[in-house]
Amino acid sequence: MDDQSHQNNSTHKEMVHIELIIGRILQIGVIVAAVVMLFGLILLLAHSGNGGYPVGHQPTTIGAIIAGTVALKPYAVMMVGMFCLIMTPVLRVVVSIYAFYKEHDTLYVWITSIVLVILCVSFVIGHTV
């Protein structure tokens, strides 16, 4: 086997491995989010439908969500589950940047990096609006 075909074979194996990691990230992210949301729902039912906050108010800042989760407030716990669900595809984008870098595909590294920046900016803008 010459050096070029050996390099292509090892690159192919690494790409298959990265694709498996991406699939596993998506599976684990959804499962974790579902378990956390289910735990929040159980807390909500145990508190007779009281989410731990005044009617019409939910935790919206990271600090309030963390404090509410530590206090086992149902709405805060469910917000953590939503955060896990939202972060799952973001983590997939990060792993994709690495995969494209390993393939030496600079165009897709740039494109995917721009997508990641847009996602981060949208989180900041969405939080301030």
Overall mean confidence score, pLDDT: 86
Q: Globular, elongated, flat, extended or rod-shaped: what is the shape?
A: elongated
- Residue ranges: pLDDT <50 for 5 or more in a row? none
DSSP strand count: 0
Quickly describe the structure.
With 129 residues, the protein is mainly alpha-helical. It contains four helices and no strands.
Give structural notes.
By secondary structure, the protein is mostly helical. It has one domain. Helix content is 81%, strand content 0%. The chain has helices at 3-46, 62-70, 74-102, 106-128. The radius of gyration is 20 Å and the shape is elongated. The mean pLDDT is 86.
List keywords for this structure.
mainly alpha
Topology:
Elements: H1 3-46, H2 62-70, H3 74-102, H4 106-128
Helix pairs in contact: 1-3, 2-3, 3-4
